[in-house]
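HUMAN: Mind sharing a backbone?

ASSISTANT:
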Amino acid sequence: MTKTYSIRNLDCANCALKIQNHLNTLSAAHNASINFSTLTLSIDALDIDAVQKEIKRIEPQVEIVSLEPTNSGAKPAMEINVFSEVSIIVIASVLTVAGFFAHKYFNHTPYHFLEYIAIFIAYGLSGRQVLVKAFRTAFFGRMFDENILMAIATLGAMAIHDLPEAASVMVFFKIGDLLQHLALNHSRKSISALLSLRPSFVLVQAPDNSLTSVKPGDVKIGQIILVKAGERIPLDGKIVCGHADIDSSALTGEHAPRSVGVSDRVLAGTINLNGELCIKVDKEFSQSSFSKIMQLTESALAKKAKTEQIITKFARFYTPAVVIGAVLVSIVPMLFIPGAHFANWFHRALVLLVISCPCAFVISIPLGYFGGIGAASKKGILLKSSGVFDNLAGLRTVVFDKTGTLTKGVFEVTAIVPENGFTSESLLEFAALIQAHSLHPIARSIVRHYGKHIDTSRMSHYNEIAGFGVKALVRGKRITVGNDRLMHRENIAHSICSHDSTVVHVAVDEIYAGFITIGDAVKPEAREALRELRKCNIEAIHLVTGDNLAAAKAIADQLDIDEVHAELLPKGKLQIVEKLLLLNSGRKKLAFVGDGINDAPVIARADIGIAMGDVGSDAAIETSDMVIMSGSLLKLAQAVRIARKTRLIVWQNIILAFAAKGFFITLGIMGIATMWEAVFADMGVALCAIFNATRILNGKN
């Protein structure tokens, strides 16, 4: 079973890639994946101690924080003493400048040794870690490591008496490394702010009203917990006493407080702003809403997008190719160019070695997706993989389920129309009795409207027919309750087939008893949400529903929906979506938005399956690619905009990395670029990519 562990002291994206590749070659470990953005290791291994030893062989400073999997989301930052690092940089910089002046003014004087003293001390201070890592890496036979390349390049510069340049390269590299550490840790805060909200303890109320402090994972379903004002609600449950306002922004992205009281259901992760609440737990912590969010977010950060996978594979071949190029640059000109000086071309080759570090490629792409996931999670939009961004960016068709998605899903009986001698009371009683066990919103509305105790012992031979209705025997009478299709299927004659609202037909012993009309209002934000989607260049919006055509068209007319597909069974919805997928070209993507358990197959089949988290069934949420925690349809357009901005920034980072590397490789071969400029080509691009990615988090979407 794959487990996730926190790691620390991992200071380079390429190092993460090396460790991951090595772990995947081990027979005792499988599915190893290191997420440099969150400093986590996901791996299926029986002996995690053996995994730690293998990591130490490659990167001795990297360690697994705990030998137990962590789901808290509180990821330790890379350990670094900023004051110490800055002090070293300042001292090394001063000594490098001093060495430069000694080289310039004392080179042919008795004091030329001052250059060596200043430069060697500066080089040792700024490059000590690089040299140690290079030695250890070389010991294990990994010659295409950035530390080895940096060591060879700078020591080579010293060999041809470019001492100040060698020291300045190490100083500049250390400055860039420190800035990269700080920038990365800053960019991680968006995710860790969400994932570190897990409560450390819960107050559980005993039958004698005494309180015991326990871990959230130890609380059982049915226990009563106490949540005081200002505390975060630790588990899902129903309020049994108390009243308060709660802030659900951590889950939904909506900052407006919501008033709750007895019988209201509250979710883990929300904050009790005032009052004191007693909550009866109905889900264990591992299954609570907040745990699901943590799992979804960490899963999204671990699963790489297609673009990210391509760049990672490219980086594996890029470094060896540039190193081979550097060797050729140092040798070939000596064979074919008359008067070529070895020191000159050797220096150019050293520049190429510095440029060859693939960190800019390895880090620039995932950070773009990392920022997008953070921006989306802030707004209550949870994605299960970074690849969803690629599909959302190409979204052109959206298919909506009706009930609970475009409509409130809160049904009310609006009319009871008996026929053939039956009364309104008997019609409602038969409908409520036969649907007492159903969880469908329409069935619940009828039972609620009936309002009396229902004795189900009078009912037998209950048979629920998906997409049609239910049949049963009640006191020896054959009762049939369902939609128009069920009446036709059972050959029950009835007067009207088409209604402009949702209708439940009732028959007794194959005699039509009448119908009950059910009303379901459109969500207030639905019209604006669809307008916002149109602004995102969505070409077609479809409605699929099991409801009758007239009721579906009434909803579609209100919302200006392009096409309506009504009276569908779950299989029919799936067939419609598959037909639309065939009509779309490869780059045009389709999203299905639903909430019910019957929507799960369609959600799974669509390019982007979207579940409404506030009312969605567990099956729909589990199979979806994206969950909108608040259930607000306005979040759809926000998700598309975030995805397209993320995609744009990712491609900006790709182009920046390729352009900068290509430019400095060209300058290096021409002999124009120096080694410190080559360091900028590596560290500078990585820093620019990091800061570019933070624009997603800081901007408005």
In short: The first helix runs from residue 13 to 23. The chain has five domains: 3-64, 82-191+299-370+645-698, 202-296, 386-408+522-624, 412-519. The radius of gyration is 33 Å.
